[in-house]
Design goal:
Blueprint lengths: L16 H19 L15 H34 L4 H8 L1 H9 L3 H8 L1 H21 L3 H29 L5 H26 L5 H14 L21 H7 L1 H27 L4 H17 L1 H8 L4 H17 L1 H4 L5 H26 L2 H32 L4 H30 L1
Helix pairs in contact: 1-2, 1-9, 2-6, 2-7, 2-8, 2-9, 4-7, 4-17, 5-6, 5-17, 6-7, 6-9, 7-16, 7-17, 8-12, 8-13, 8-16, 10-11, 10-17, 11-12, 11-16, 11-17, 11-18, 12-16, 13-16, 14-16, 14-18, 17-18
């Protein structure tokens, strides 16, 4: 039976293994600065960060770096190889969809595997599997085999994502959870960006990218062996459930993840296309995506700091309103200097709802239910990613200038309206009671 110990719960350009280890050392120092604080009384149910929590946080950052690097590296590597072999673009797109499909299919199973075999053992197995799969792409250099390999790769990456995310939000002390989760979001974004950068440095030919990718993942897995299981802490919401049941308990958190996933997928897949269709140069279109990611990397810590001081509902309303506003004006600033700061703000605010949702997840749940919540987030991310990629393409086809911005603004507008309506309903219930 999976157990957790002492009031906690489970969840870059790095192109050389030694730098990979140095990155983890730096992460550990930053996290130590963020979570070290005075002891808090257990009477008010505030979790105090301990040395084992710090060890778990560093290990979780290692796992999430593995996730981001593997996902960010594999996608451009295989797409470029297929394009070089003149594989049709629609087949490339279909093949690329296999990894999100694997994430979507496998995420509900992860909590049960963690309970049966232990979260640390499952995470290590997933990391080793990911490394083997990266080499397998070269061993089985065949388009048909890649469909199967990418599906399994999605499953292994989903496992790392779900468990490391649960470790992050569960091991962070309540007082500093927002800041720690924000650091996690920045690390994840940087590791996503590191993958394409790595391919740009080493190229796609021969065994080199496959071997370096696999070795980096193996080295990044080593800190996971230091994970220590923690005991379940008493919180009000802890019974084991599945994704559907969990969604009923935390619909706003799940909706926040869905909005983030749609924005994330549509932006990564189609923002450069949107730029080129609107007469930006190829380099400008590529830099547009960089500007969006920069906002997510550098502005999440201030959002996390604010989330530790402001109620989650207020944060959701503020961030979604800001996202709607800046995304909606993109067509009018497209060919001006304001285009770039607008993208930075859109990235930080739009992705910020995910940071707040993770912080709230750790505040409300622990133990197996925290892992179930993280798995539910992963399922919803998979669904949102598929919706974002498909609807984003349709939106550009319907309107080259307004389609994509208005689609994303509409998604966040619905989320904003849902939060306002839920706040009013809860206020009315309290008043009538």
């Amino acid at each position: 039976m999976f157990e957790i110990a002492d009031g906690g719960a489970l969840s870059s350009g790095v192109h050389l293994p030694l730098r990979f280890l140095a990155t983890h050392a730096l992460i550990g120092k930053v996290l130590e600065d963020q979570i070290t604080g005075p002891e808090m009384s257990s009477d008010n149910n505030i979790k105090t960060a301990t040395s084992s929590d710090l060890r778990n946080l560093v290990a979780a950052c290692a796992a999430i770096t593995v996730f981001g690097l593997a996902f960010g590296m594999t996608a451009p590597l295989l797409s470029l190889l297929m394009a070089e072999r003149e594989v049709p673009s629609d087949i490339i797109g279909l093949n690329s969809a296999m990894m999100p499909l694997g994430i979507l299919l496998f995420s509900p199973v992860i909590p049960y595997l963690a309970e049966r075999f232990g979260a640390r053992q499952v995470a290590i197995a997933a990391a080793v599997t990911t490394a083997v799969l990266i080499v397998s792409y070269k061993v089985f250099d065949n388009l048909g085999a890649w469909f199967l390999l990418r599906t399994v790769n999605g499953m292994s990456i989903a496992t790392l994502f779900v468990l490391s995310e649960a470790w992050i939000v569960g091991s962070a002390g309540s007082e500093h959870r927002g800041k720690v989760v924000a650091i996690y979001a920045s690390i994840l974004s940087a590791s996503f960006a590191a993958g394409p950068f790595l391919i740009g440095v080493i190229g796609v030919e021969g065994w080199t990218p496959f071997v370096i990718g696999a070795l980096s993942i193996v080295i990044g897995t080593l800190p996971i062996f230091g994970i220590r299981d923690l005991a379940q802490s008493p919180k009000t919401e802890h019974s084991l459930s599945g994704p559907i049941s969990f969604t009923r308990k935390a619909p706003i958190l799940v909706a926040a993840v869905g909005c983030f996933a749609i924005l994330d997928s549509a932006a990564i897949s189609l923002l450069p296309v949107y730029g080129i269709e609107n007469n930006l140069t190829q380099s400008e279109a590529a830099f547009a995506l960089t500007a969006l990611i920069v906002g997510n990397i550098f502005l999440q810590p201030p959002i996390g700091w604010l989330a530790d001081r402001v109620p989650a509902r207020t944060m959701f309303i503020m961030l979604s309103a800001l996202t709607v506003g800046v995304v909606a004006i993109l067509p009018w600033v497209l060919h001006t200097i304001f285009f770039w700061p607008v993208l930075v703000i859109a990235g930080s605010a739009g992705y910020g709802v995910y940071t707040v949702s993770l912080k709230s997840l750790g505040d409300r749940f622990d133990g197996q239910e925290l892992i179930t919540g993280s798995a539910t987030f992963s399922v919803v991310w998979g669904i949102g990613a598929l919706i974002g990629a498909i609807s984003g393409g349709w939106s550009i086809k319907l309107s080259t200038v307004f389609g994509l911005p208005f689609l994303l603004a509409g998604v966040y507008l619905l989320f904003l309206a849902g939060n306002i309506m839920r706040a009013k309903t809860q206020r009315t219930t309290r008043d009538s009671g």
